[in-house]
Design goal:
The chain is built from five helices and no strands. The protein has 77 residues and is an all-alpha fold. Helix 1 packs across helix 3 and helix 2 crosses helix 3. It is globular, with a radius of gyration of 11 Å. The termini are far apart. The C terminus is likely disordered.
Length: 77
C-alpha cells in the first residue's frame, strides 16, 4: 500500500517528533517509520496506526496529491 512519505515527514516535523517518538506513539518500530519515510510503502495496519497518531483519516495520508497537501498546510499556518 502506498502512503505519502512527504506528508509523513512533514507532519512529524511539524509536531517536533523524532522518528523514534512517532514510532512509539503509533506503536510501530522505528525501522518501519524509516522505511515508510524512505519509500512510501506500508501495510494497512501501519497506515491506520499513523493516521491515528496524526489524528487524520487514512485517506489523508494517501500518496495522491502532495502538492495539494502542501498548499493546504501553508494556508493553515
Amino acid at each position: 500500500m502506498t502512503i505519502s512519505n512527504t506528508k509523513i515527514i512533514q507532519l512529524r516535523k511539524e509536531r517536533g517528533w523524532s522518528q523514534e517518538k512517532l514510532a512509539a506513539i503509533a506503536s510501530l518500530s522505528e525501522r518501519t517509520i524509516q522505511r515508510i519515510e524512505k519509500d512510501g510503502t506500508c501495510s494497512l495496519d501501519s497506515k491506520m496506526a499513523l493516521a491515528t497518531a496524526f489524528e487524520l483519516s487514512p485517506a489523508e495520508l494517501s500518496a495522491t496529491d502532495d502538492k495539494h497537501f502542501q498548499s493546504v498546510s501553508i494556508i493553515k499556518e
